């Protein structure tokens, strides 16, 4: 049994004809359906039906490519170029932590003025140009959110 099958609640198989089969609903689904599973925060894995290889990451990247090709892309050409330049460096873990901080900020109640002020600085840290991040994080190994560096707790 692959790791994908062990840890995912829902298994999707991709067949050679490029069709996706959801084993939970016993039905073929589209990439749009997989996108909705992601938005619903559902736990799933996509495996190649022939080899059993976990191809979840590949499918998620395909969804991102389609989203970026749409009317409202999230990543600018400059941001994409900076990401490509950082391959082979320790940016992955830093980027993942930054995105997690952003998601946590988005989940905070909007009426909490203290959390909003701290969160605004966190988001500002996320949006810093890559060179400033490199300097501040030396390089990414010692990332500390701005609010923690200022002696403020991120948790209320």
TrEMBL record:
Domain of life: Bacteria
Matches recorded under InterPro entries: PHA_DNA-bd_N, PHA_reg_PhaR
Residue ranges constituting the PHA accumulation regulator DNA-binding N-terminal domain according to the UniProt record: 11-69
GO-annotated biological processes: regulation of DNA-templated transcription
Stated name of the protein: PHA accumulation regulator DNA-binding N-terminal domain-containing protein
The species this protein was found in: Oxalicibacterium flavum
């Amino acid at each position: 049994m692959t790791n994908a099958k062990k840890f995912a609640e829902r298994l999707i198989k991709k067949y050679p004809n490029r069709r996706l089969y959801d084993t939970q609903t016993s039905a073929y689904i589209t990439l749009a359906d997989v996108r909705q599973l992601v938005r619903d925060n559902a736990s799933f894995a996509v495996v190649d039906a022939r080899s059993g290889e976990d191809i979840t990451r590949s499918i998620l990247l395909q969804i991102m490519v389609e989203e970026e090709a749409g009317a409202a892309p999230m990543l600018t050409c400059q941001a994409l170029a900076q990401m490509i330049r950082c391959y082979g460096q320790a940016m992955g873990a830093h980027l993942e932590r930054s995105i997690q901080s952003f998601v946590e900020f988005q989940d905070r109640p909007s009426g909490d003025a203290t959390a909003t002020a701290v969160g605004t600085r966190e988001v500002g840290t996320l949006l810093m140009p890559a060179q400033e991040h490199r300097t501040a994080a030396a390089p990414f190994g010692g990332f500390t959110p701005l609010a923690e560096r200022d002696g403020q707790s991120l948790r209320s």
